[in-house]
Amino acid sequence: MQGQRVQKTNEHLPGVKCVVSSCYYHKPGDYCSAEKIEIQPPYARDTDETDCATFIKA
Ligand code: SF4
What residue spans define the domains of the chain? Predict the structure, then answer.
């Protein structure tokens, strides 16, 4: 998904809480307005290793 902008919507992704307020898709209330998100990397071993690959700096 890198380099490929995901559509920003007027909705928020149900069930997703995101606190990354520096993200282009972040909405007040800790919501994500991306149409879809991708989490990376494969074979992560703990929480610290997993990140949202859809993130774009606001
Ligand atoms: S794209 Fe990822 S980092 Fe950005 S608001 Fe959505 S879940 Fe958070």
Answer: 1-58
**Conformational region of residue 48, where left means phi above 0, alpha means psi within -120 to 50, and beta covers everything else:** alpha
Q: What is the average per-residue pLDDT within 13-37?
A: 98
CA distances to 25, 36, 41, 42 from 9, rounded to whole Å, are 9, 10, 25, 27
Ligand 1: distance of its center to the CA of 58 in Å?
A: 11
Residue 39 alpha carbon to ligand 1 centre in Å: 10
How many angstroms is it from 10 CA to the middle of ligand 1? 14
The whole model's pTM is what? 0.89
